[in-house]
Write a structure and sequence with these properties.
The protein is α+β, with helices and mostly antiparallel strands. The protein has a single domain (3-180, 190-292), classed as 4-Layer Sandwich (Glutamine Phosphoribosylpyrophosphate, subunit 1, domain 1). It has eight helices and eleven strands. β2 (79-86), α3 (92-102) and β3 (107-109) form a beta-alpha-beta unit. α2 (35-48) runs antiparallel to α3. It binds aspartic acid. The site of aspartic acid (ASP) has 14 residues, from β7.
């Protein structure tokens, strides 16, 4: 997003959503909860917030549906859980956590994932719960463009995937990501968000990261795992590793960003877009949020 493309109301809404997510995740950590519980709590807030492309407010597929992807990863054990293309679970991130905790698998997709959610007793909603008019209009605009012969798939569109990373009192790391994917996606397209090692990654030996951006490119560079590997094997600081991988992403025409927290306690972000909706809180520092590249 650019400054002139955002109304004051939307700007305030994004910042309020980020602050609420930081408060939810921060409260878990302040009560000595786990990093996994903290990232789930933060992402649940953003999934319910219609400003973001996850849960309520997710973008629409070409067929006019909301198909949700999410992942969570525990840096202490490198256990991971993920779901792709779910349509009825209010909190896909909680379903991803159930896959991690209560199934022998890492990634469940589509109908099977919805069935697993029912079996796990996770809150189900009518598909209309996720619908937000602005996202619907974005699909209509894309279809009109397609009718004029323009590509239906435009990876330069505004993103809006949500994610959280955390380091808890015990020094354990975790990451979670949740998304509706890309407007107009079809053929069961799945992006980087629910793929551990691509859009979501956590390893206590290096970093936890969550990504947003042109998912296909994050998959191709294995963004999350690559940042972790640079820290673990090259001894780079998390910021330097994140910067290097975003530069590498740009080299294959990719756009987006990551948030990270390192085993060393450093935390931040790297991105090559005009904005990244982001925020940070710690025991030592009160919460801050920012949107545009020129904000501190
Ligand atoms: N990375 C997400 C995807 O490709 C999109 C986003 O970040 O908004 O599904």
């Amino acid at each position: 997003m650019t400054r002139d493309g955002v109304t004051p109301e939307a700007d305030a809404g994004y910042r309020a959503g980020l602050a609420a997510a930081l408060a939810a995740g921060g409260a878990v950590l302040a009560a000595s909860g786990s990093a996994v519980a903290a990232v789930e709590a933060a992402v649940c807030v953003l999934e319910d917030d219609p400003h973001f492309n996850a849960g309520r407010g997710a973008v629409f597929t070409a067929e006019g549906r909301n198909e949700l992807d999410a992942a969570i990863m525990d840096g202490a054990t490198r256990a991971a859980g993920a779901v792709a293309g779910v349509t009825r679970t209010r909190h896909p991130v909680s379903l991803a956590r159930a896959v991690m905790a209560s199934s022998p698998h890492v990634l469940l997709a589509r109908d099977g994932a919805d069935i697993f959610a029912l079996e796990q007793g996770l809150e189900q909603v009518e598909p209309g719960w996720f619908r937000v008019e602005e996202r619907w209009q974005a699909l209509q605009a894309m279809k009109a463009a397609a009718a004029r012969g323009e590509s239906l798939f435009d990876k330069t569109l505004k993103y809006g995937t949500v994610g959280a990373v955390a380091r808890d009192n015990a020094g354990h790391l975790a990451a979670a990501t949740s998304t509706g994917g890309l407007t107009g996606k079809r053929w069961g397209r799945i992006g980087d968000s629910p793929l551990p090692g691509a859009g979501t990654f956590a390893d206590d030996r290096s970093v936890a990261i969550s990504a947003t951006g042109s998912g296909e490119d994050f998959i191709r560079v294995g963004a999350g795992h690559e940042i972790g590997a640079r820290v673990r094997m090259l001894g780079e600081a998390p910021q330097a590793a994140a910067d290097a991988v975003i530069a590498e992403l740009r080299g294959i025409d990719g756009d987006g960003g990551v948030i990270f927290v390192g085993a060393d306690g450093s935390a931040g972000w790297a991105f090559n877009t005009p904005s990244l909706l982001r925020g940070r809180v710690s025991a030592a520092q009160s919460a801050m949020v920012a949107i545009f590249v020129d904000e501190a």
